[in-house]
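stage 2 :: seqdesign
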C-alpha cells in the first residue's frame, strides 16, 4: 500500500456533518453506525485485511488522536488496508489507550488480519461517542470514538478510490 494514502489519512480535514460539501449519499456512508466491514461485504465476495503495522507507540506518536483519549503514556496503534476481493477499499488507523487494553479488550492486540469491525460489532458493550466526516484531496474519511465497556478507542478511516463509496459518488 502506498504511503501516499497514509499521508492522506493523516491530512484529513474535519468537517461538520452540516457542511455543504457533504451530499446525502456521502453522509449515508460516512455516518454509518454499523460495521463498515459488514457493509462492504454487500459489495464483494470477500473482505480481507492487509496489516501495515501493529505496535505500541508513545502519546507523542498519536498526538492528534490522543486529544480525544485518556492521558495514557502508551497507545496500541494498528494501521490496515481493508480490501474487497483483493482491491484496497479503506485505510484504517486504530489508536487504543493502554488503559483500554484490559480483560476482553486485550483481544484488540491480537486481531492480526481479522477486521476490527468483526470484533467490535460482536461485542454487546459497544457504543459510539461521535463520527467526524473528513476530506483529504479528493478522498473522504471519518473519525469515530468508540467505547467497549465504556473504554475508549479512536478509529480513523479513509475511503480509497476503488471503494464502493467512491464508485457510488462517480455514478451519482
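stage 2 :: out
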Amino acid at each position: 500500500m502506498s504511503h501516499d494514502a497514509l499521508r492522506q489519512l493523516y491530512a484529513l480535514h474535519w468537517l461538520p456533518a452540516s457542511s455543504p460539501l457533504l451530499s446525502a449519499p456521502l453522509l449515508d456512508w460516512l455516518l454509518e453506525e454499523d460495521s463498515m466491514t459488514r457493509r462492504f461485504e454487500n459489495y464483494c465476495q470477500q473482505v480481507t485485511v492487509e496489516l501495515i503495522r501493529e505496535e505500541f507507540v508513545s502519546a507523542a506518536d498519536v498526538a492528534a488522536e490522543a486529544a480525544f483519549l485518556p492521558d495514557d503514556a502508551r497507545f496500541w496503534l494498528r494501521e490496515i488496508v481493508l480490501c474487497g476481493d483483493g482491491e484496497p477499499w479503506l485505510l484504517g488507523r486504530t489508536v487504543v489507550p493502554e488503559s483500554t487494553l484490559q480483560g476482553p479488550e486485550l483481544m484488540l492486540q491480537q486481531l492480526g488480519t481479522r477486521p476490527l469491525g468483526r470484533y467490535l460489532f460482536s461485542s454487546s458493550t459497544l457504543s459510539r461517542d461521535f463520527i467526524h466526516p473528513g476530506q483529504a484531496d479528493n478522498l473522504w474519511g471519518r473519525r469515530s470514538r468508540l467505547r467497549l465497556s465504556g473504554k475508549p478507542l479512536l478509529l480513523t478511516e479513509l475511503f480509497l478510490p476503488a471503494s464502493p463509496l467512491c464508485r457510488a459518488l462517480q455514478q451519482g
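stage 3 :: structure notes
- The two ends are 27 Å apart (CA to CA).
- DSSP finds six helices and seven strands in the chain.
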